[in-house]
Amino acid sequence: MLTHAIFSTSSSAASGSSPGFADVIGWTQSMAMNGMMSVQYPTVYKSFSQNFGWSLCMVPWSGMQKAIDTFRSHSGGNTTLSSWEVVQASSILDYQTGAVILVNETALGGSTYKLIRRLTLDGIDFSQNNSTMVNGSTSVRVLTTVQGIARYVEHLMLPNANTFMTVLMFFAIIMGVVICSILLFRIALEIWAQFGSLSKALESFRQRYWLFMGSTIVRVILILYGTWVLYCLYQFKLGDSWASLLLASITLGIFTAIICGFTLRIFWIAHKASREGGIDELYEYKPWIRRYGLFYGQFKAQYWWFFVLITAVAFGRSAFIALGDGHGLVQVVGQLALEFIFILALFAIRPFSNRSGNIINVIIAIVRIASLACVLVFVEELGVAAETTTIVGMVLIVIQAVLTVLLALLILIQAIIAIFQQNPRRKQNSAFDETELHSLGESKAGLLKVNDSYNLELKGSRDSASGSNIGVAISEYGRLADGTGSTAAKTRGAHTTPWDDNGSHAELVPLAQGDDHAADEPWARGGLERDKNGRPVF
Q1: Is pLDDT above 80 for 368?
Q2: Which long-range contacts (CB under 8 A, 24 or more apart) does 104-112 make?
């Protein structure tokens, strides 16, 4: 889900490209979550939705599930009704709005089976006559009925009560793999550096190793945050083991605190930037974009805050599904309201920095609304005929499958384009804007005052004929662009030239008061000659 697209939101964030890996993961998560609502899904759509359970970390692993059962049994969990052993000895039959879990008494074992409580399904008492002969010998009895999230995970052969702990274990594995991979790569670079020279990109990674590590961890948290909210809230509603509840509370609190902490920090630096030089500094000042760009880097400068709306909508989606479990109409209507708010915001302000980002996210939002409208047909309270729901289920599969293929193709195309096309924001900042270069020579606009006390001299460039220094007088260099151009030199005190991002070619220092020898230079006259690379030639 856009945090589902940030998260939806969101590797594409820093580069501004869309769709990205986070967009695809978010979309697959949304299709899986669609199958978790408490409605009467056609069998064909239930099977389709379960194919995406992997994106929610719903993968059966016997060793892990047995360990979770042991953990729950030692912390007050009820493993007689929900455990790996019970799942393996059970089969599920869909029945109207729910699903009947049938337990094989012989496979489960008499001592465990005698503890299982027999329930009533839709007014039919199975406790008096609940034995059936399977293959002529095996006794099968009704255990319980499930719907919504429980039905989804049980169909994937996972115990319902193990849901949160399963996600927690897979998250720990993913984080361990990510951290170990980055650490091993750093060790390899250190060894390489001892025997040879590193490229600029590798040396940059080596120098900013901890920053890269932290950013990667935060990125993983962002991608999985919507899923985490869903399962933590569901664990709160389910109860069971006190240890599972404690872990759900702690982890949800930590992840939410991390996101809120970054959000507050970004708001603070945005306020600071708007006061001192302009909101563009969020994108132009490299330390900020490196640390926080994964949150706002894909949005236009004036809509840098849009990631807050994305996060809030993602949280709301998961909350409606988890806390509304058992009430399909509430789940669907609540999500529809959020999706309409989100798509109205997309249409109104078009927040993404490039056109493709806006188009793709609008398409995803439209398909989400269409999907929820189809799911609304499956709500029991509406009483839609079974034949109609089957047709709608097929339509829903086609819509979601087409968008999935489209996203995959767009990612491939985007990757090919990225190889040959420069980042638009980097391209914009790699050289001074043509109008800004002209403004340097427009004394009528008040941008060049030769006798100003802020006059600066360009050192390091020498005329090949005379060998004399070329003086460049610029009044209040930091305000040349009048709020529309780069102001990093002013607010950071960086000694850089307009055509040189890193300041490696020249240094700006004060001229003596009244030194106006630069007034006759081409720079001051505005008729600046350039070489083939677009750099000024004096």
Answers
A1: yes
A2: 104/134, 104/138, 104/139, 104/140, 105/138, 105/139, 105/140, 105/141, 106/137, 106/138, 106/139, 107/138, 112/80, 112/85, 112/86
